[in-house]
Design goal:
The complex is a heterodimer of chains A (about 325) and B (about 350). Chain A is mostly helical and about 325 residues long. In chain A, about 80% of the residues lie in helices and about 0% in strands. Chain B is mostly helical and about 350 residues long. The radius of gyration of chain B is 20 Å and the shape is globular. Classes of the chains: A mainly alpha (about 325), B mainly alpha (about 350).
Amino acid sequence: MSAMTKNLLSKTLVLATALTLVYFTLFIGDDIANNLQDIWQLISGEADKYQSIVVWQWRASRLFSAIIIGAALAISGAVFQSLVRNPLGSPDITGFNVGAFTGVLIAIALFGNIYWYSVVGAIIGGLCAAILVYLFAYRDGHSGFRLIIVGIAISATLTAFNQWLSLTVSLETAMTAALWSAGSLNGMTWLRIMPATLLIVALMGLALLLNTRMKLLEMGDDTAAALGISVNKTRLIIMLIGVSLTAVATAITGPISFISLAAPQIARRLHPQKHITLVGSALVGALLLMSADFIAQHSMQNATLPVGLVTISLGGLYLVYLIIREGK
Amino acid sequence: MINGQTQNSVTSRYQWLILCILLLALIIVASLCIGAKPISINDIYQVLFSDQTGLTSTIIFEGRLPRTLNGLFVGMALGTSGALIQAITRNPLADPGILGINLGASLAVAIAVVFLGATQFSAFFIYAALGSLVASLLIFAIGSLSAGKVDPLKLTLAGIALGAVFAGLSSALILFNPLAFDQIRFWTVGSLDIRTLSVPLYIAPIVIVGCLLALSITPALNAFGLGDALAATLGSNPIRVQIIGLITITLLCGAATAAAGPIGFVSLMMPHIARWMVGPDQRWIIPFSFILTPCLLLIADIIGRLLVVGELRVSIVTAFIGAPILIYLVRRKGASSL
């Protein structure tokens, strides 16, 4: 009974935080909405043009991007953590969001700044990095330690390559690339986020469809095979979906770290049976990125930080906390 | 028989040592000669030992010589600190880059530039050393919280996590401060290319003191490698070794980061190559590390000069050389059960 109450309480708390965040992200600031009446006018569309453009064109699209991207990264993390059976298998630790970013850079350098080419480049880059990391780290299964170290090696090489690439291409291209490399939601418009949203939602649907098979794979390859699953094919498809989710997100925002790692782990702690569920991870991921972006927008006066810097700092601290807690 | 073998291996160690020193000398000369404008050994001799002015002299004194000396001292610092960290943490995969110590130094320099208005190189060094000290203390503290002993996996994780925090904070600090950004840019991609002799001359005494300190504790390090209890039985004080080691690492990492920015992987792999040449004796590993690491660093720098017009930064070259070696090391049998 008390466990249920606690569970209910934590869910209410999460929901309340989410709503408060939405409220503040949309309506904070001078001359936007001073009282409830103003807000009602904004919602019903009776507010004047300046205010509704600020709220609905600028802020709402950014908020929506944070939710979608956060959910995508979190599901990708949950998928990989389940696939490798280790929390440290997430895309940001193994570093193939850096690979996706390399793909974007190459696409920009070869074909110019065209959206779909960047997305395809990100998927191919991310997939190559992922395959490299998992192949090199594999040795009678995946140990967390090997995954991390191989991830460091591959992502250090790719980072070096990225740095070299952005030193050699034209200044304009290098600037575009530098903006992306920090991971930012600045300048997200409805027009930019919508195509990515369609892709992400489709990929999420696929991930949910394969959820049962994923759970069976977690029981071990032999058990899964005995239950009638073609292990390698399923694993490849699931990996493709996971990489694509991270890659699509990376293609439009640049590498945003630690959401993939932290969201499934937090979701597991909130879950009554301590399971990682895709939906739970997605919700937590969306909430995390929303909060991080709120901090990014309001922590410094007159300037907006790239949200990637906030997630990497807070996520790093969270990882430190996990290490300390496990030590006790 | 056993005695003969030992004798033999000592001779072969001395042979390796002479070979390595010759190699280093050769590479130093090559580093002075090779570049966008090749200079012959004869010309270098004349420039160095007679008062000559002109293009060649400018290239040598404001380009190649500072760069070569920087590579030499930074290499010594990186190699020795890598070997020390690996010995003290009993973790063959530790290095100041992976453990986030370099990033701590970078963050301290960023703070100094943004908030304290530091512009002098000497100030950079002091803050870099302070930063690496605080970073290593934090990482060791977090990494050893479980059961009071250093757990390699936890240490690595703590280093990665704190390194991420340090990196995020320093980017956030400098991104909105164009002046600081311009000064810090140097640290984000490691390079040996500094155009003044004052930097290598400033770090030279620090690096030499650091290397001597490291050499002085090598016998104790050998005992330390056997475990705390056995080391104490053998009459060595593990705590004292760790403290001296930590001070040395701080001095060396601070000097290297202040002079060249973060250069990854060299301090990880060179101690392994030294161990492969001379066996597990720290009294040999540490001197070999500080002779061999400058070789690698200068070769990487020369490759960078030759490969790309407009030059490739040395840290980019070392990443490409070092990553495959790191992967090989972690894939060996027993690497994960350190």
